[in-house]
Specification:
The protein has helices at residues 19-25, 49-56, 67-80, 128-134, 163-176, 179-195, 208-219, 239-255, 302-314, 326-337, 356-364, 384-388, 390-393, 399-404, 422-431, 452-466, 496-499, and strands at 2-4, 7-10, 37-40, 42-47, 59-60, 87-92, 114-118, 123-126, 146-150, 156-162, 198-206, 226-232, 264-272, 318-323, 347-350, 368-371, 409-411, 484-488, 503-509, 512-516. By secondary structure, it is α/β, with parallel strands linked by helices. The protein has an eight-stranded parallel β-sheet. A six-stranded mixed β-sheet has the order 5-6-7-8-10-9, sandwiched between helices. α2 crosses α6 and α15 crosses α16. It is globular and about 85 Å long. The two termini are 16 Å apart. Bound molecules: zinc ion.
Length: 526
């Protein structure tokens, strides 16, 4: 591979004996990778950069198996950090506390506000001090698409759900952080991405605050990844207000688009149609099997959604729709089917429970299946058969079916709801086995793996294609940017098992070395 001026100029064989002569003639540098493997760099098809950076710095309760272990972790964190104003945790799995999350269960540990994010980021478990700090009390109404858990008197009991997390908890914590903290979160996230072999991301919850931070980093030449972003929409009961949000996204896109700002741009909008299965908020066509036997709510009425989607489409915006339950997926596909245009590469995010006939429609309608295979890791889904029944588990993460329907697959991680590392993600996609707990041999709908080739392709080219960047990057081709990684530990016969041994030795972006695992590792690279 010959790289010149950041672009791939030649790919193919060069007779070994001609290399010294070419090196001199072209004033170039030859790098012998000593048998390591080169791949296109990864592109995270779905992430939340600011939240990811913040979460890296939060305490982790992901490995806790019950309330006692969570309480011990909180107490240890409190002792280890006497200087901070509030204690932030991530990775709580609802099943470890029987889906119960009361302030009173953690109130006695520390007087400071305590915020515990569920692993999927759709709920936050707060102690009384945290509720107080946010000003949430009996008089706080439930926001549209969200809820505050309450007792029979109407007093909040500690759990904040769905839309209420996005409109109450996140703005509070972001508001409480200093600007310098937030810039650091983003820098931390970008650094982690580059060290894991990524050169680009698709950001799925952009707003003015985050955009402004990214702009300043760009001015300081510290934007170390290329970014295509989807502007987040908040459902209101007023169509005008909803359409005004779409207009704002369109205005932003006019300023930052593929033509005038290909590395830092607005791709479209993001709509959250429902919640998640674990907290019974993903919208299903038939009820959950556990009390109160609800079906989970759709966040948008189909008529409000249709208006928003039609306006976005007519403005040339790409539409990304979070849909996890089969009813939400069905609604999302229906509204996209009604659009007049084709070829906008609209997309559905997550697609965790999809009826077979809807999976078929994805390919037919040219809808991108934006998936995060690491979410199908069977460890963490043990509660699903009881929640939805084994029959509906056959609709879970039907990745192969999406592919067979002809849909373009884009692979991402949804960091920080799941780890951002690429190889474990691809391992789960290819084996449907657990990466979190290799001793767990149960699989959810194990007949839906993608081939290794499909996995690698979807995690680079597929994500590039999903946001119209495939002529710039996403594969190793003459004329494209030299965005690639050098990988250790992958033998020539690539297999799922070797993926777990693989590690990124170097990341190159536009022909520049932007990450090297070890400085001077035997002087091999220079
Ligand atoms: Zn997300």
């Amino acid at each position: 591979m010959v790289v010149n001026d950041g672009v791939i100029e030649y790919l193919g064989d060069i007779p070994h004996e001609r290399i010294p002569e070419l090196e001199v003639a072209n004033n170039s540098r030859v790098i012998d990778l000593k048998g390591r493997t080169v791949f296109p760099s990864f592109i995270d098809g779905h992430t939340h950069l600011l939240q990811f950076g913040a979460s890296i710095l939060k305490f982790d309760v992901n490995r806790c198996r019950n309330l006692d272990e969570i309480r011990t972790t909180i107490a240890e964190a409190a002792r280890s950090a006497p200087e901070i104003n509030r204690l932030l945790f991530r990775g709580w799995r609802q099943s470890t506390t029987d889906r119960l999350a009361l302030a009173s269960m953690i109130d006695d540990i520390d007087p400071r506000p305590i915020f515990v994010d569920s692993h999927d980021l759709h709920s936050t478990w707060c102690n009384t001090a945290a509720l107080k700090e946010m000003g949430i009390d009996r008089n706080t109404p439930d926001p549209v698409g969200g809820s505050i858990s309450r007792n029979e008197k109407g007093d909040p009991t500690g759990l904040v759900n769905e839309g209420a997390v996005i409109t109450l908890v996140w703005p509070h914590l972001i508001g409480a952080a200093s600007r310098e903290d937030k810039l650091d979160w983003i820098r931390t996230a970008m650094k982690s991405y580059r060290a894991s072999g990524y050169t680009g991301i698709i950001e799925m919850a952009m707003d003015e605050g985050v955009w402004e931070l990214l702009e300043s980093l760009r001015e300081m030449s510290q934007l170390d990844l290329w970014i295509a972003a989807h502007w987040i929409m908040f459902p209101t009961e007023n169509d005008e207000e909803n359409l005004a949000q779409v207009q704002q996204a369109a205005n932003m896109r006019a300023k930052y688009n593929l033509d005038n700002s290909p590395d830092f741009r607005i791709a479209g909008i993001k709509i959250i149609c429902d919640g998640v299965v674990d907290s019974c908020t993903a919208a299903l066509s038939k009820p959950y099997l556990v009390p109160p036997h609800s079906t989970g709510d759709l966040n948008w009425t189909s008529s409000a959604l249709q208006k928003v989607v039609a306006k976005a489409d007519s403005e040339g915006l790409q539409i990304a729709m979070h849909a996890i339950g089969d009813a939400a997926t069905n609604q999302a596909i229906n509204v996209l089917e009604n659009l007049e245009t084709t070829g906008r590469r609209h997309r559905i995010e997550h697609l965790e429970l999809t009826r077979p006939e809807d999976a078929e429609r994805l390919g037919r309608l040219g809808i991108t299946a934006s998936i995060q295979p690491v979410h199908s890791d069977p460890s963490g889904l043990e509660a699903w058969p009881a929640l939805i029944g084994t029959e509906r588990c056959d609709w879970a993460f039907t990745h192969k079916r999406f592919h067979d329907s002809g849909a373009q697959i884009a692979i991402g991680t949804d960091a920080p709801t799941a780890p951002h590392q690429p190889f474990p993600n691809l391992y789960v996609a290819n084996t449907r086995s657990s990466v979190r707990d290799p001793s767990n041999h149960w699989k959810i709908n194990g007949c839906e793996p993608l081939s290794l080739h499909q996995c690698f392709s979807a995690a680079s080219w597929g994500s590039a294609f999903s946001c119209f960047a495939e002529s710039i990057t996403g594969s190793l081709e003459v004329g494209k940017r030299a965005d690639f990684i050098v990988v250790d530990g992958l033998s020539e016969d690539l297999s799922a098992q070797t993926l777990l041994l693989a590690s990124v030795a170097q990341t190159w972006m536009c022909g520049q070395l932007v990450f090297q695992r070890q400085a001077n590792s035997e002087g091999v690279f220079d």
